[in-house]
Amino acid sequence: MLAELLVLLVLAGACTAILAMKVLAPVKSPDDATRDYLEAIKTGDTSTAFGLLCRSSRKGLTRQKFAEGVAEERRTNGAVTRYQVVATFVESGGRGRVRYTLTTTKRVGTVEALLLREGGDWKLCDFREVSP
User: Fold this and answer.
1) Based on the number of CB atoms within 10 Å of its own CB, is 31 exposed (0-12), middle (13-18) or buried (19 or more)?
2) Which of 4, 11, 41, 105 qualifies as a FRET site for 51, CA 20 to 30 Å off?
3) In contact, 83 and 109? CB cutoff 8 Å
4) Do 53 and 70 meet the contact criterion of CB atoms below 8 Å apart?
5) What are the angstrom distances between the C-alpha of 89 and each of 50, 104, 128?
6) How far is residue 74's CA from residue 102's CA, in Å, rounded to a whole number?
7) To the nearest whole percent, how much of the chain has pLDDT over 70?
8) Coil, strand or helix: which one is 53?
9) What is the pLDDT of residues 107-132, one digit of tens each?
10) Strand pairing of 80-91 and 95-104?
11) Would residue 93 be called left, alpha or beta, if left means φ above 0 and alpha means ψ between -120 and 50 degrees?
């Protein structure tokens, strides 16, 4: 009887710990979402990168078309070799901007990603080149 009670307590504790980690875990920041996206692009994981886009950016775009666009961008501007987030701005209304330097095999530039908070996660919606 004591052994059964001990097993139940251990199981209950484990379940509580798992639930607490899920509920209390911090929501990813805009710069985390941007790094995840850039790493996916760098490694050629277009499926993951596509999943990190906001609804409006995915609208009318299939995973296949997105992958083709990434491949064309790689041919035109080079493959991503390095990136570094230099600034993050969280704005009201679930909006954010992340500025990063992007190094490819053909060029170096500064880009600003515009993000939206959708369903508790930060999603990338748009990108624009900016002066450093």
Assistant:
1) buried
2) 105
3) no
4) no
5) 23, 24, 15
6) 13
7) 79
8) strand
9) 999 999 999 999 999 999 999 999 86
10) antiparallel
11) left
Structure tokens belonging to residue 132? 């450093």
Distance from C-alpha of 97 to C-alpha of 89, rounded to nearest angstrom: 5
> Rounded distance, CA 127 to CA 28, Å?
19
Give the three-class secondary structure for 121. Answer: strand
pTM: 0.78
Token pair belonging to 66: 């997105």
In 1-132 the beta strands, taken as DSSP E runs, fall at 80-91, 95-104, 108-118, 121-130
Q: Which two tokens stand for residue 126?
A: 């748009």
- What's the CA gap between 50 and 41, in Å, rounded? 9
CA 119 to CA 111: how far, in whole Å?
25
